[in-house]
Amino acid sequence: MTRVADAPARRAPLLRAAVWVLVATGVTTSALGAGDAKRGANTFAEECGDCHSPKEGKAKKGPPLFGVVGRAAGTAPEFAYSDALKASGITWSPEKIDSYITLPKKTVPGGKMKYDGLADAGARADVIAYLQSLK
Questions:
Q1: Helix-, strand-, coil-residue percentages of the chain, each rounded to 5
Q2: Where is the signal peptide (predicted)?
Q3: How many domains does the chain have?
Q4: DSSP secondary-structure letter at 72?
Q5: pLDDT tens readout for residues 30-68
């Protein structure tokens, strides 16, 4: 007989597998639900803030991300983008940002971003909600 207390431990591998299926099949944050901009600001500071500024016109190692949602990739005038990103044809929609911050090197092969990606779909949704608030 299985004890009720053992149920969460038995489900953990299934939950991990389900998350990886969602990531591998390209399920985006819009399919997973809306993020929280406040949490996203914290995650942005931890994961993105060393290289990207949320302020308009303030490039760091990477381009500023103020107003990035809806912007064509490689077009912020204060940053020297890779040829790969400039030629990507990407417009930064929430779905495309989700794909990019999941696996940047897969989304834009040959790009300059030195970041391996953010596997947590909830954290990505939060960062995207934060980026959407930067207008």
A1: 50, 0, 50
A2: none
A3: 1
A4: B
A5: 444 689 999 999 999 999 999 999 999 999 999 999 999
Does the CA dihedral 107-109-114-119 come out positive or negative? positive
For the cut 70, the answer to whether the pLDDT of residue 109 exceeds it is yes
Tens digit of pLDDT for each residue in 3-35? 545 545 554 454 444 444 444 444 444 444 689
Domain encompassing residue 33: 4-133
HSE of 37 in the Cβ direction (CA atoms, 13 Å)? 8
Using alpha carbons, select from 82, 126, 78, 123 the residue that is nearest to residue 105.
82
Asked if residues 77 and 66 have their Cβ atoms less than 8 Å apart, the reply is no
CATH number, domain of 88, equals 1.10.760.10
What are the backbone angles phi and psi of residue 28, rounded to the nearest 5°? -100, 175
Cα distance between residue 77 and residue 79, in whole Å: 6
3-state secondary structure of 85: helix
